[in-house]
Specification:
Elements (H helix, E strand, L loop, with lengths): L2 H17 L1 H66 L11 E11 L2 E7 L10 E5 L2 E9 L4 E5 L6 E6 L4 E6 L4 E7 L9 E4 L11 E10 L3 E8 L8 E5 L2
Antiparallel strand pairs: 1-2, 1-12, 2-5, 3-4, 3-12, 4-5, 6-7, 6-9, 7-8, 8-11, 9-10, 10-11
Length: 245
């Protein structure tokens, strides 16, 4: 190839470049802008995905924390919910002599025969009866600032006066593993199955609260004794009425 031809080709290329310079420039700018927009778009997508990921992680952490709070709260109120379900079984008694009360806790575990209730009487000088569904549950013996100590029928320190049967034969009920009525006059006829109620003569209960039924009779020299199956189930202490007046 001679020099003349070579220079002719170069001249043609330069002429073409000069003639199409605007088109080439536009193509280059278009390509550059396209690449720039793609890079920016890719950056924005990556940034969005990273932000969404970290937000999701943060949201999961918040939800996990809130879930624990709610779970702990539900666990804390579950005993209350369980107790208030039992409230449906609790019979309302319209009597000005009694005051509603609720169990706080056992007083001296593993002994389950004494409990604390949310009843208080600063001037308590005499035991007061506690009632569940018109049945004798036990007695209140001590009162503190915001609560009181109650002894259930299963406590050996529990005692109150009772009547037996239709003839209202007197006796004194003593708590324990078995509820026992002592000091029943020998000359009075009592029978297995007789209903036992409170006499009210000791000012612990009013007359007529149900205690239980006689299951066996023991003859003593001076008095009779009777074993009673109580109506109240003392293994589930929940709500009570206190004989306040």
């Amino acid at each position: 190839m001679n020099k003349k031809f070579f220079y002719t080709i170069i001249a043609i290329i330069i002429a073409i470049s000069f003639y199409f310079k605007d088109s080439i420039k536009e193509s280059i700018l278009f390509s550059f802008n396209f690449i720039k927009e793609e890079v920016i778009s890719s950056y924005d997508i990556i940034k969005f995905k990273l932000t969404a990921h970290f937000n999701q992680v943060k949201q999961i952490q918040i939800l996990t924390k809130n879930n624990k709070i709610y779970r702990d709260y539900i666990e804390s109120i579950y005993p209350l919910i369980s107790n208030y379900k039992k409230l449906k079984e609790f019979k309302i008694i319209n009597n000005p002599k009694i005051v509603f009360s609720q169990t706080i806790s056992y007083a001296n575990l593993p002994d389950m025969s004494s409990i604390y209730i949310n009843y208080s009487d600063k001037n308590l000088s005499h035991p007061k009866g506690i009632i569940y569904n018109q049945e004798v549950a036990g007695i209140v013996t001590k009162s503190y600032k915001n609560y009181s100590l109650a002894l259930l029928n299963t406590n050996p320190s529990t005692s109150y006066t009772v009547f037996i049967g239709k003839n209202k034969i007197p006796g004194i009920a003593f708590g324990g593993v078995e509820l026992t009525i002592k000091y029943i006059p020998n000359y009075k006829k009592i029978n297995i199955g007789d209903l036992v109620i409170t006499s009210g003569l000791d000012r612990i209960f009013y007359e007529g609260v149900k205690v239980g039924k006689i299951t066996s009779i023991i003859q003593k020299k001076l008095y009779q004794e009777a074993i009673v199956k109580p109506f109240y189930n003392s293994y589930h202490p929940t709500f009570f009425y206190v004989v306040d007046n």
